[in-house]
Design brief:
With 584 residues, the protein is an alpha/beta fold. The chain contains 24 helices and 17 strands. The longest helix is centred in the middle third of the chain and has 34 residues, at 248-281. It is elongated, with a radius of gyration of 41 Å. The model is unreliable at 181-188 and 537-542 (pLDDT under 50).
Length: 584
């Protein structure tokens, strides 16, 4: 049994060869399960950005070219059998000395590539007449076989295959064209049906002479595994030698996909930046709606205090958005990649808040309980409603903020944590700070580190954007249109005291957003939703005039900002200003 047949018996029943030109491709082919490697000049030309047809052009000393990269790269990069793609076009080539060198260098076999079968008829005739034709390639493989080297013969026709088999070669590589450099597409003049028919005929001829000869299909129009499967099912070929389909096509496809992916990321980043700029123009900052100067001032403070390990106190009336801003402080900090720990303080006559915050030490009656301060180490601890803590608990929290250490509720052992404290404090309506709600020590610990959120009644410029935002949320449609709110209704919304702030506005909009589109939203409907009596009737022109004057005053006579604050277009605002003689 021949060496190649023995090699086949030790491998799979279907054989895969990689016709390549670099060590990197050889390593990849071995890891992917290839059975042998062919070092061909065509593989190197493909790696250099050329194409397989360059292999038959007189632009290199082919044998010296293949020797250079195969010895320095391929033989060192794989343990697979390596076949040398030998060219016999050179009349000065001493085949015997050449084959002796190949065997000494460690090549397992030889193949006739490039071959005269790849030339057109006139040029092939010239070489045949010069005794440099196909018979010289037959002699090359016969002498290689005599030296114990494995042989694979490139053939195109039945007569060429018969000559090689009768000469004693061990495998036939049926190759009908050299693919040009077109990504994922063969430039072949032969289609898959014709390929299958010609392959079947050659395989029958080969096995009619010697059934032990292995029939391989080499390259051609096949670029995908499913195409190979169809051809092999019809022809009974025993293996495949992939060239462009194994190196150039996957590489170009991969580079194309990866480059497009990176380019897409850049384009998406530009689109995100553009969207963020648009959102900022519409009053969105860091996921918070802020067109008013007072809210923007609070957000600037939150952004400034987010850096570093310093504690932060977020104070405001109930429903003003304290938890949202506290989460924003964490997301702007250096700890944003770790999920924050959130602890809501609840009014409790016992010590539940203290036990949760500072933990318990183990004793004979109690198991150890881990504190949220320990859990939040290396991230942020968001303490909601810190004003609900008892005086003693506030004092212990102040101790931790000052020293970075604490003791368990029932213990004396000192523990440390580097948690960043972000606390929220609920201020009763009408008050401007948390003074009187926290102990003096805890107030001092947060001195200069407080973010005060304005109540909704002090940021009416944000009212239109907030209404639209909650409308989209309720309807679940980003393209949802604005509510058809009449001026009288908007005036009723703007004049409301909003004791529940943003939370109350959300509930109001949720009720308005589910109304049929053709229902007009007037002042009486707003009053019904708010649960208040409608204001006494006033002359319409006067109330509307005062409404616009108040908005102009708040926006320092900036008409564009005033129009957005009132939910009007610029043109409508200008018309009303002229009609009501506001700036006369």
């Amino acid at each position: 049994m021949s060496e190649l047949r023995q090699f086949l018996s030790d491998s799979r029943s279907f054989m895969l060869g990689a016709a390549i030109g670099s060590g990197m491709t050889a390593r990849a082919a071995e890891r992917a399960g290839a059975d042998f490697v062919l070092a061909l000049n065509a593989g190197r030309f493909r790696a250099m950005g050329g194409s397989s047809p360059a292999s038959i052009l007189p632009i290199r000393d082919s044998n010296a070219f293949v020797e250079g990269f195969s010895r320095s790269e391929i033989l060192r990069s794989t343990r697979l059998p390596v076949f040398f793609g030998a060219c016999t076009f050179n009349p000065t080539l001493d085949i015997n000395l050449f084959l002796d060198r190949l065997k000494r260098w460690g090549f397992a076999g030889v193949t006739n590539f490039p071959s005269v079968i790849h030339l057109d008829d006139p040029r092939r005739a010239i070489l045949e007449e010069s005794k440099l034709g196909y018979q010289r390639e037959v002699d090359l493989l016969v002498k290689a076989r005599q030296r114990g080297m494995m042989t694979i013969a490139y053939t195109r026709t039945q007569s060429e295959a018969r000559r090689m088999v009768e000469a004693g070669v061990e495998a036939i590589a049926m190759n009908f064209n050299l693919n040009a450099a077109e990504t994922a597409q063969s430039a072949s003049s032969i289609g898959l049906p014709e390929l299958a028919a010609r392959t079947r005929d050659i395989a029958r001829t080969v096995h009619g002479v010697d059934r032990n000869v292995v029939c391989l299909l080499a390259g051609g129009p096949i670029t995908k595994p499913e195409e190979l499967m169809d051809v092999c099912r019809e022809t009974g070929t025993q293996g495949f030698i992939g060239g462009s389909s194994l190196d150039r096509v996957p590489l170009e496809t991969s580079v194309l996909e990866m480059t497009s992916g990176f380019k897409t990321i850049h384009v998406l980043r530009e689109k995100v930046d553009l969207l963020e700029r648009r959102l900022q123009l519409n009053g969105y900052r860091h996921g918070v709606i802020a067109q008013s100067a007072t809210m923007n001032k609070s957000l600037d403070a939150a952004k400034r205090l987010a850096t570093g390990a310093n504690p932060v106190l977020v104070s405001g009336e109930a429903g003003a958005g304290k938890r949202r801003v506290a989460s924003l402080v964490h997301s702007l900090s250096g700890r944003k990649h770790r999920k924050p720990v959130v602890f809501p303080c609840r009014p409790s006559p016992g010590s539940q808040n203290a036990i949760a915050l500072f933990g318990l030490d183990a004793d004979k009656d109690t198991r150890r309980r881990i504190s949220v301060l320990e859990t939040a180490s290396e991230t942020s601890l968001v303490i909601l409603h810190v004003n609900e803590l008892s005086v003693e608990e506030q004092e212990k929290l102040a101790d931790f903020i000052e020293s970075g250490s604490y003791t368990a509720h029932n213990g004396a052992t000192t523990n440390r944590s580097d948690a960043k404290i972000i606390a929220t404090c609920t201020i009763p309506a009408g008050r401007r700070s948390s003074e009187g709600l926290l102990t003096s020590r805890l107030r001092d610990a947060f001195a200069g580190l407080e973010v005060v959120l304005p109540p909704l009644r002090d940021r009416l410029e944000d009212l239109p954007a907030l209404i639209h935002h909650f409308t989209v949320e309720t309807r679940g449609d980003a393209s949802a249109g604005v509510l058809a709110i009449e001026n009288s209704a908007f005036l009723a919304l703007a004049s409301h005291s909003w004791p529940g702030n943003i939370r109350e506005l959300r509930h109001v909009v949720e009720q308005l957003a589910i109304l049929p589109p053709d229902v007009a939203i007037a002042a009486d409907r707003i009053s019904a939703v708010l649960g208040v009596s409608p204001p006494p009737a006033e002359p319409t022109n006067l109330s509307e005039r005062e409404w616009i004057i108040d908005a102009l005053r708040r926006n320092k006579l900036h008409r564009g900002k005033t129009a957005r604050a009132l939910g009007l277009s610029r043109k409508t605002l200008y018309n009303k200003i002229r009609k009501l003689r506001i700036l006369d």
